[in-house]
Amino acid sequence: xxxxxxxxxxxxxxxxxxxxxxxxxxxxTKRCVLDAIKAGYRHIDTAQSYFNExxxxxxxxxxxxxxxxxxxxxxxxxxHYGYEATKESVLESLRKLKTEYIDLxxxxxxxxxxxxxxxxxxxxxxxxKIKAIGVSNFSPDRLVDIASFNEIPxxxxxxxxNPFNQQTEAQKxxxxxxCALEAWAPFGExxxxxxxxxxxxxxxxxxxxSNAQVIVRWLLQRGVIVLAKSVHxxxxxxxxxxxxxxxxxxxxxxxxxxxxxxxLFFSHTDPNMVEWxxxxxQERKKNKVASKEKKNW
Length: 297
Prior knowledge:
Elements: E1 5-7, E2 13-15, E3 17-20, H1 26-39, E4 43-45, H2 53-62, E5 71-76, H3 83-97, E6 104-107, H4 114-126, E7 133-136, H5 140-148, E8 156-160, H6 168-176, E9 180-184, H7 198-207, H8 211-221, E10 225-228, H9 233-240, H10 249-256, H11 271-296
Parallel strand pairs: 3-4, 3-10, 4-5, 5-6, 6-7, 7-8, 8-9, 9-10
Antiparallel strand pairs: 1-2
InterPro entries: AKR (IPR020471), Aldo/ket_reductase_CS (IPR018170), NAD(P)_OxRdtase_dom_sf (IPR036812), NADP_OxRdtase_dom (IPR023210)
Pfam family, one: Aldo_ket_red
Active site: 50
């Protein structure tokens, strides 16, 4: 099947439609990833905080494809931030993913010791453990900051991008610094009736395509890498079946009119949300300590 690729600043080529495994339970991850690979996906996106890297690793081993035909992304979680902790966590991700290298490693959130962690990614990149490095959920100001004061700027920034939060301004700043934009929640997890939206439906009806397919095609034509997710094989196939039509300028303008520039979830610049992330990290640390004490008792 056809696939578009995005060439990163260092020459690494990323399949522009990826399969995301967020919120897929560990016991279902291997089956879903194998189904996605069968459907034609070659880009798989996971994260330490999804707790399903092992399932992705099992699928990598069992799918039968040469490792170089797959593009694997993972992300460092907040409790592993800091230079040494990040390096250790990436090595642990490699073990769980059962691979000698990760194609793209991102810092998952723009909080905590971002700078120490990013330096760790740079060193792991130089050591060949990571083929490309980047960030996730970085607003334009944070992106410009980390890109300007590091030897190797981020090559990818993964942010919420969908018809209701289109990130057009963020894309301009990312591209200025040679950083590719990657969309999480391209379907907004179904919020605001996105799968039945009349504007998207009217466009899709012209081509015999679903709202989801119109969204994927719209993002591709903007040059944005797309992370589509489904646990159903038929929908996996449908989400990647977008290479037999092209949206017109009028279609693109109609979709642009849906943008209200607000997140469908939460803002990473909201101090209340920062506190929420801090509490999450603190709770996980407490649970780890309690678990260790119970084992040693």
